[in-house]
Model the fold of this input.
Amino acid sequence: MRWAAFEPRRIGGRKPKAISGDHTVWLSRQIKSDDFAPRGLVAELAARGLTAALSC
Done:
């Protein structure tokens, strides 16, 4: 019987930001505005092509 060689895989590392560029500026303005609702924000992010969900 021949055993396979196991090598440790890289753990962690740098993960790219989920929201960047113009989306970051827009999101910051939305959060600072008085008219901020999490459910509405999820819908607006989806309209911009970003995946978002409410975690309750």
Notes: The longest helix spans residues 22-32.
